[in-house]
Write a structure and sequence with these properties.
Radius of gyration: 22 Å
Number of strands: 15
Number of helices: 0
Distance between the termini: 42 Å
Strand content: over 45%
Structural class: mainly beta
């Protein structure tokens, strides 16, 4: 697809979901949809829909567990890691997902906070600012390893405190002096009593 100035806006091919790259005919119907004839059948391209198909060909890998539109980006939590793309791409290449480099393992959930996003993953809890992730440090007297984390539960009326269920049980994560940190393990709550 090209605009009135001749600039390529979008390309349809097998990598984008067509059944074949060899096209015999195109037909625009009276509803504004495009019919495409191939060697082995036809496809309907619904041009008037807001749906778009993303997969490995668009840089999105793994099983998708959560999507979050936040500020200028769409973030995806997947079984492979965390990915992002601009909400309004300026060109075809920008319409691809890219990985968040510090989070390259199974990612479960996003929780927007005042200045970024908290992310739960198999290798800990991360704070995501724009497209840069940093591991949330453990700041507990009884030093514990960085826990596999699944779900974030906000605490009503306390925006700088959250509960996170982890492989170690329920943890309190708190923002102190402008930085998020794991502050406390909640005693008496077994891991099997938590939801995922």
């Amino acid at each position: 697809f090209i605009d009135y100035q001749g600039n390529i806006q979008y390309t349809l091919n097998m990598a984008k979901g067509l059944q074949d790259n060899f096209v015999w005919a195109l037909c625009l119907d009276n509803t504004g949809n495009l019919w495409v004839a191939f060697n082995n059948g036809i496809s309907l391209v619904e041009l008037n829909t807001h749906f778009t198909y993303y997969n490995e060909n668009a840089g999105l890998y793994g099983h998708v567990y959560q999507l979050l539109p936040y500020k200028n980006y769409l973030f995806a939590a997947t079984s492979i890691g965390t990915f992002y793309k601009p909400l309004i791409p300026k060109n075809v290449e920008e319409n691809r997902f890219k990985p968040i480099f510090n989070i390259n393992t199974q990612t479960w959930r996003f929780q927007p906070v005042d200045d970024g996003i908290l992310v739960t993953a198999n290798n800990g809890i991360f704070f995501l600012k724009d497209t840069t992730a940093t591991l949330v440090p453990v700041n507990i007297k009884d030093e514990i390893p960085t826990p596999r984390s699944w779900f974030i539960m906000p605490i009503p009326n306390y925006p700088e405190k959250l509960f996170v269920n982890t492989a170690l049980g329920l943890l309190l994560v708190e923002k102190e002096n402008g930085k998020w940190q794991i502050k406390k393990k909640i005693k008496g709550i077994a891991r099997e009593n938590l939801f995922y």
